[in-house]
Protein: UDP-N-acetylenolpyruvoylglucosamine reductase
Amino acid sequence: MAVTLTNIFPSYDIKANVPLANYTNTRVGGPADWIFWPKSLAELKAVVAYAHQIDLPVLVLGNASNLIITDDGYRGLVIFLTQLTRITVSEHAVTALAGAALIDVTTKAAEYGLTGLEWAAGIPGSVGGAVYMNAGAYGGQVDAYLESADVLTATGELKTYQNAELAFGYRHSKVQDTGEVIVAATFHLEPGNATQIWSTMEEFNTRRAQKQPLEYPSCGSVFKRPAGHFAGKLIMDAGLQGFTVGGAQVSRKHAGFIVNLGSATSADYVAVIAHVQETVAKQFAVQLEPEVRILGH
Ligand SMILES: Cc1cc2nc3c(=O)[nH]c(=O)nc-3n(C[C@H](O)[C@H](O)[C@H](O)COP(=O)(O)OP(=O)(O)OC[C@H]3O[C@@H](n4cnc5c(N)ncnc54)[C@H](O)[C@@H]3O)c2cc1C
Structure:
């Protein structure tokens, strides 16, 4: 029986056979059988439950800023949470739906004079993606500020994890193992000096613009920081800046980034990653492990 999601959920924002390259930060990625943008939690729950019922594989994404989708795309349903963006503020906390941009959460916190999330001001991910990845920068990391996260289980149950239950590690959270969908997160923040908060955020963003190739599509730092080293420095010392396959290039501005010069495919990205890993392993006996997720089937 052919799956016809658009017939079953006629009023939902669902499209068939759409190239994921249109939505990923790298601008690479083949077609998904289906893409769905839920406008409410109820829509999300209904479609996840139906997909579970008919065994349709589901991939939940936020801003697609930390992944490479393969050129053959995704056989199943990709759900982008980018319309679930509500952010609410209380005295010591900011709560956001998973699709809210981390950048908007940091702006909202600054507007209310709440300090803690300044380090995240320039990370182009969603709240869900940031919790999933335990994103971090400039000495800050999600696990230091997250109070709790609400998730949707595969069977449609909503539950709340407190910080300690999320088994956070370096670029790791428990949700990577459970496959649950993060639907909201609450960050615990402290009242601070608004002028100072804004200027810290601005300083971090200036540093990003100076060091990172923000003028090209990319997925941020490709590799995790290996113990005792910096991935970017190893790649630079190996003389790999500018190494190019097709349209994917080790950035000349920041060796930890692989940029899309315009015509890159996912295969180009994967080939550059493999070459960088091989060269760094040969020269420095360090095995670089990708931070970005390579997804698709
Ligand atoms: C220019 C640039 C700079 C960056 N700088 C940083 C940085 O300083 N620090 C840093 O840590 N990262 C950085 N990143 C990487 C990236 O922005 C972060 O990892 C971000 O948190 C990923 O969020 P996302 O919404 O884009 O996730 P996506 O790329 O959409 O998804 C990443 C993974 O999370 C899963 N996921 C996403 N949302 C959910 C959800 N709601 N429920 C369950 N699973 C979910 C996806 O299935 C996927 O496996 C950078 C990226 C770019 C392009």
Remarks:
- The mean pLDDT is 96.
- The domain at 87-211 is CATH 3.30.465.10 (Uridine Diphospho-n-acetylenolpyruvylglucosamine Reductase; domain 3).
- The chain has three domains: 5-80, 87-211, 231-291.
- The first strand starts at residue 14 and ends at 19.
